[in-house]
Amino acid sequence: MTGESQNRVLSGMRPTGRLHLGHYHGVLKNWVRLQHEYDCYFFVADWHALTTHYEDPQIIGDSVMDMVIDWLAAGVNPASAKIFVQSDVPQHAELHLLLSMITPLGWLERVPSYKDQQEKLRERDLATYGFLGYPLLQSADILMYKAGSVPVGEDQVAHVELTREVARRFNHLYGREPDFEDKALAAMKKMGKKNAKMYRELRKRYQEQGDQEALDVGRALLDGQGNLTMGDRERLYGYLEGSGRIILPEPQALLTPASKMPGLDGQKMSKSYNNTIALRDDPRDIEQKLRTMPTDPARVRRTDPGDPDKCPVFQLHQVYSDETRQQWVREGCTSAGIGCLDCKQPIIESVLAELAPIRERARQFEEDPQLVRNILQQGGEAARDVADETLNEVKSAIGLKY
Ligand code: TRP
Ligand code: SF4
Question: Which protein residue has the closest C-alpha to ligand 1 atom 13?
Answer without folding.
Answer: 11
